[in-house]
Amino acid sequence: MLLDLARRIHPDIEAVFIDTGLEYPEVRDFVKSIENVRWLKPEMNFKKVIERYGYPLISKEVSRDISVARNKPEGKTAQKFIRGSDYHKKYGDAWLLEKWIPLRDSNIPISNRCCDIMKKRPARKYDKQSGKAPIIATMAYESRLRKKEWLTNGCNAFDKNNPSSQPMSFWTEQDVLQYIRQFNIPYASVYGDIVEDENGKLYTTLCDRTGCVFCGFGCHLEKPENRFQRLKKTHPKLWEYCMKPISEGGLGMKEILEYINVKIE
Asked: Which of 40, 86, 201, 249 allows an S-S link to 122, with CB 3.0 to 4.6 Å?
């Protein structure tokens, strides 16, 4: 949808797609149908990332803080897990990570490095080589971190070390679906149809979000049917690869998801 907005003003603007290998096949096929798209690839695949750094679980903030607290158990970040710490006294319960202590103390490798390695690095490399700055479709409602970034930098973060524009920051999911319906914008078939419920709320009949197929961020908050239950129905081979132990050539996510009480089938 962002590309449609941009090309209404600049018809020849180049689109960039980072082929991480984590997209649904339908998304890759859809991108192939679009003209003037630059395809980029990360230097490391997802399996190598999780083997070296750890799995993306809960959220970018929590996975980062668990990783940092493990490395520096006496550091400032470790205080986020301690009720009554100086950090807790200053910021209150909303930012307390006490409930994630069992995950922090588990032997599950956890990190927030995946997005940086597989998406941001190839994008920044291309920005540097091309001399261009990105226009990105991230929205503030999607996460606390994105909301914070928007409140700090606004829609156009031109003064950052890596300048970018996020013109859709104040949009919501309903805005996006309404725009797509109103202007009949093509989209990947993995989302299904856009329909309206009895209260006038729009939703997609298949996937509501795609992103990275195997990402664990936010999956613990999803009500049945969650992304992994849905993946087993729609793409059973991808689901099997995801759940199969690393020793058998898979990603080894079955036991990890079960540990954080995420149903997988």
From this structure: 40
